[in-house]
UniProtKB/TrEMBL annotation:
<protein>
    <submittedName>
        <fullName>Ger(X)C family spore germination protein</fullName>
    </submittedName>
</protein>
<keyword id="KW-0472">Membrane</keyword>
<feature type="domain" description="Spore germination protein N-terminal">
    <location>
        <begin position="19"/>
        <end position="194"/>
    </location>
</feature>
<dbReference type="InterPro" id="IPR038501">
    <property type="entry name" value="Spore_GerAC_C_sf"/>
</dbReference>
<keyword id="KW-0732">Signal</keyword>
<dbReference type="InterPro" id="IPR046953">
    <property type="entry name" value="Spore_GerAC-like_C"/>
</dbReference>
<dbReference type="Pfam" id="PF05504">
    <property type="entry name" value="Spore_GerAC"/>
</dbReference>
<feature type="domain" description="Spore germination GerAC-like C-terminal">
    <location>
        <begin position="222"/>
        <end position="353"/>
    </location>
</feature>
<keyword id="KW-0309">Germination</keyword>
<keyword id="KW-0449">Lipoprotein</keyword>
<dbReference type="Pfam" id="PF25198">
    <property type="entry name" value="Spore_GerAC_N"/>
</dbReference>
<dbReference type="InterPro" id="IPR008844">
    <property type="entry name" value="Spore_GerAC-like"/>
</dbReference>
<comment type="similarity">
    <text>Belongs to the GerABKC lipoprotein family.</text>
</comment>
<keyword id="KW-0564">Palmitate</keyword>
<dbReference type="InterPro" id="IPR057336">
    <property type="entry name" value="GerAC_N"/>
</dbReference>
Length: 377
């Protein structure tokens, strides 16, 4: 009886699930986008809210859209949550946010205000992946996506596919990574999303064509950021090289030419080491690169021999060295320290005059199922 009374008294102090959120009462945001007018300073925020009934496979469902896109305009980022309560009949909820997309014109103005807003927000989503759009935000945020009806999940799935290629499973760029790299001289490269097509696929009928590349989002080039401001862009090849040389990407594909024929190889487990070499007259910055190679496609008609494998390794080394030299020149011409010389012991005033020594050592570890490709005499 005494134990019963004690238990009854304790129940009085139990509040129950006071912080429980009913899913039907939430406006679950999957994707968010921001634009900023450079002339007026006015922001436009886009939120894609998941429509549960649109995801249902039940026949006869009246709602077809998997998401609804809301947009709001204001001069302060902190007032958008309040604005959603005037239009959305559910509580604004961002805990399942997949990605942020920033317009290119906003990125070129600098997004330090956006980073601070995310970092200082009690419900911040700083681990969310960031993208830059070179297409109109209205087009990007009002388009259906193939194979996955939720655009935010579609974008995050594309990111997840390349995640194993990155060192320590790090995504290409998240808000918290950009915040950590704000004071570095080494630029931060953010993936650019582009919409292929003149008009958005705002209805599912636009996706009934088999060629989805005509109307859909794709990723390629990279936006170059220095101190949270976009200063330019680089192509997909340069973006890959940037990620490799800055120890973020450990696997990529290269094509070399051997005896007049093409060979596609995959560089795996790429390791990059940096060190300064002593010289009496100039500063020498050494890049030591090692990689394991695997043949993906071999168009040679000659038999695969040890000598031939050495040729592939040598050609890969030469090709990568040429790319790095061109990449380095481009960075110095634009004033971008893409190799991170200043952040690795270099001088802020003389880093452009620093000579870079490149040492590459690749090793063929896998050649495929056949030692000689099939061909007709």
């Amino acid at each position: 009886m005494k134990a019963f009374l004690i238990g009854l008294i304790l129940l009085v102090f139990c509040t129950g699930c006071w912080d429980m959120k009913e899913i039907n009462a939430l406006a679950i945001v999957s994707l968010a986008g921001v634009d900023k007018n450079p002339e007026t300073g006015e922001y436009t925020a886009y939120y894609q809210v998941i429509n549960p009934t649109g995801l249902s496979t039940r026949q006869g469902s009246s709602a077809r859209a998997a998401v609804y896109t809301y947009n709001f305009k204001d001069f302060s980022l902190g007032r958008f949550t309040d604005r959603t309560s005037r239009v959305m009949p559910r509580k604004f909820f961002t805990a399942h946010l997949q990605s942020y997309i920033i317009s290119e014109r906003y990125a070129r103005q600098g997004i330090l205000d956006f980073i601070n807003f995310i970092e200082l927000n009690p419900e911040r989503r700083a681990n969310v992946v960031l993208y830059i759009s070179d297409s109109p935000m209205n087009t990007i945020m009002n388009s259906f996506t193939p194979l996955d009806r939720v655009p935010g999940r579609f974008i995050r799935s594309l990111t997840n596919l390349v995640k194993p290629s990155f060192s320590m499973g790090t995504f290409p760029i998240r808000i918290k990574e950009m915040a950590k790299e704000l004071h570095l001289h080494t630029p931060t490269v953010v993936p650019i999303v582009h919409y292929a097509g003149e008009n958005p696929s705002s209805t599912t009928n636009r996706l009934e064509e088999i060629d989805v590349s005509k109307n859909g989002m794709k990723f390629g080039d990279g936006a170059v950021f220095i101190h949270a401001r976009m200063v330019g862009r680089i192509d997909e090849t340069s973006k890959t090289l940037y990620l490799v040389l800055n120890k973020k990407l450990m696997k990529y594909t290269e094509t070399v030419k051997i005896n007049g024929d093409y060979v596609d190889v995959e560089a795996q487990n790429v390791r990059v080491k940096r060190k300064w070499e002593k010289d009496k007259h100039t500063s020498l910055f050494a890049l030591n690169i090692k990689a394991d190679l695997r043949i993906l496609n071999n168009q040679q008609k000659s038999k695969m021999t040890v000598q031939n494998l050495r040729q592939i390794e040598t050609s890969f080394n030469q090709r990568l060295e040429e790319r790095i030299e061109s990449f380095e020149r481009m960075g110095k011409e634009k004033g971008w320290d893409l190799l991170g010389i200043q952040d690795n012991g270099g001088n802020e005033m003389t880093w452009r005059q620093t000579k870079v020594n490149i040492h590459i050592n690749s090793r063929m570890t896998a050649i495929g199922n056949t030692s000689t490709p099939y061909h007709l005499e």
